[in-house]
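task queued by scheduler; priority normal; single chain, no ligands, no partner chains; default sampling; output format set to C-alpha cells
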Amino acid sequence: MKVYTEEFSRAYSQKLDGQVERRMRQAIQSIGSFWYTAWVDAGQPKLGRKNQEIIFEPDSAITDAERLQVRDHE
C-alpha cells in the first residue's frame, strides 16, 4: 500500500484545484437525486418512524444448519 507524504498530498490537491471536493459534492447530489426519484416513482410513500423500525428477535433467528439444509454424505 502506497502512503504519500503530507507535502505531496497538499501539492497534488492544489494542482487539482479543488477537483476532489467538487466531485464529492456532485456525488452527494447525484445519490440524493437517485433516492428522491426512486421515492417519487414508488408513489411517495410516507417515511414515518413506524416504517423505519426493524424488529430483530434473536430467539426466532434461523440457525446456520436450518438455513443451509445440511445432509450427511457416505
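post-processing summary
- Residues 23 and 29 are 10 Å apart (CA to CA).
- The chain has a mean pLDDT of 80.
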